[in-house]
Amino acid sequence: MTQASGTRDGLEGVETRLFIGGTWRDADDAGTIDVLDPADGSVLASVADGGTAEAMAALDAAADAQAAWAATPPRERGELLRAAYELVAQRADQFARVISLEMGKPLAEAKGEVTYGNEFLRWFSEEAVRVRGRWMENPVGGSRMLTMKKPVGPCLFITPWNFPLAMGTRKIGPALAAGCTVVIKPASQTPLTMLLLAQVLEEVGVPAGVVNVVTTSSSREVGAALMADPRLRKVSFTGSTEVGRGLIGQSAEHLQRISMELGGNAPFLVFEDADLDAAVEGAMVAKMRNMGEACTAANRFLVHESVAEEFGRRLAERMSGLTVGRGQDDGVDVGPLINAEAVESVGALVSEAVEEGARVLVGGKPAEGPGWFFPPTVLVDVPAEATINRHEIFGPVAPITTFSTEEEAVAAANSSEYGLVAYAYTRDLTRSLRVSEALAFGMVGLNTGIVSNAAAPFGGVKASGFGREGGFEGIEEYLDTTYVAIPL
Ligand code: NAD
């Protein structure tokens, strides 16, 4: 472990204990987890390492608070979310610094995450009062049908490290709006942001037990213990497909409702009629946001053979102009990856691509020195079947593969087991719609490199999971429907 070198502004006052039933407390055995700065490997803070006993205490608190929270008027629930939104906005700089420190992303991007993540609190503060059932006449007459919506009950949220705030608010916003209480288990690499958010929720007056946070290094045990309890009614998970599959299996025992936001392998299609300037601009965002550590990151660049060379040249030029460094330093565009394994796995995918015939235009090898840095990398002449095209890269590497027809491009895009998001650049309106319809993905970015928006339904198909976060759909994940038959 090296000594901290960067400024730690932002960490003062951030809780490091468990938040259970409205009380901050240490782990029963006083154990802690070190949170590391990915820019140099130094320890930023140590947070409580809760175990299954503490997790069960959190579920007890959530279960105890459930009835009163469900009975709290929707307007009141919405206004608490709105107050939390206002307070996060006021503290946006601190949130951004904490995100940047523990996750590594540049401050400007961390600020972007605060704006985006906070928007879920605002959006669902507005949706809280719009939950409604319906009244319908029986088609054959003689009776009426009434439907009513009810909160599903206590929820477990398991979130990843790549968007420490937004992956939480996407779940907390709709759950609280719907009247559900929650136990949150943030990623152990980036727990501080969620603890800071819990402080905000406490400060604005969210009642004790409605939101509980358990940080732990024993995710598997804690997840399994909570899911083995029938009081838990819902699990929303964002993370890898592998872990998601295990949780789906565990949910079978008590038939808990589940939402799964899993991995992606986004194709980025550039047709011969695309506006290349816009495509390069979009590629930079879709690839480099979060250093490529995003489920939505463009993973496979599929470019028409007539424009591939020009596209590759321009992308390499832009990528080589990026400044790599500590996320909190001025002028940095690309921060470190989350840990040493991430650097190793990205490096291995690049080496394998080269063995399989790819050429490196820029980057290609991990940076020397402390911290977990990988330089922006562009690979051309990547064979369609290359290993890198089949794996989620989760790093700043853009592999370019060519195609010659639209059918070939769509087939290549759909050949992945994943189906989260696809990007397509074309100026032809008919092709835009035809391709959007043909792409087997939950989301399509049409002439844009960014799709995330609190007002839109985010989610995937196939191995990217199911369920939607955000939009009008997001709150449905937290509501059950009761139908009442009424003879008249
Ligand atoms: P991960 O699956 O390793 O971990 C995610 C969370 O699950 C962490 O909190 C971790 O501690 C916990 N966890 C791990 N094993 C567990 C188990 N057996 N039981 C219960 N919890 C367990 O994923 P990660 O490396 O943190 O995140 C990267 C992955 O997340 C990528 O695949 C990425 O595509 C995906 N992701 C998806 C979305 C989306 O919305 N679809 C968004 C962001 C990230």
Please tell me about this protein's structure.
With 488 residues, the chain is of the alpha/beta class. The chain contains 14 helices and 22 strands. It has helices at residues 52-71, 74-90, 92-103, 107-127, 166-178, 192-204, 219-227, 241-251, 276-288, 308-320, 340-355, 387-390, 406-414, 429-438, and strands at 18-20, 23-25, 32-36, 43-48, 134-137, 143-151, 155-158, 182-185, 211-213, 234-238, 257-261, 266-270, 298-304, 359-362, 377-380, 397-403, 418-419, 421-425, 443-446, 461-462, 465-466, 479-487. Strand 12 (266-270), helix 9 (276-288) and strand 13 form a beta-alpha-beta unit. Helix 1 crosses helix 7 (219-227). The chain is globular, with a radius of gyration of 23 Å. Mean pLDDT is 97; it is low at 1-5. Residues 158-162, 167, 185, 187-188, 219-220, 223, 238-240, 243, 246, 261-264, 295, 392, 420, 460, 464 line the site of nicotinamide-adenine-dinucleotide. Nicotinamide-adenine-dinucleotide binds at residues 158-162, 167, 185, 187-188, 219-220, 223, 238-240, 243, 246, 261-264, 295, 392, 420, 460, 464.
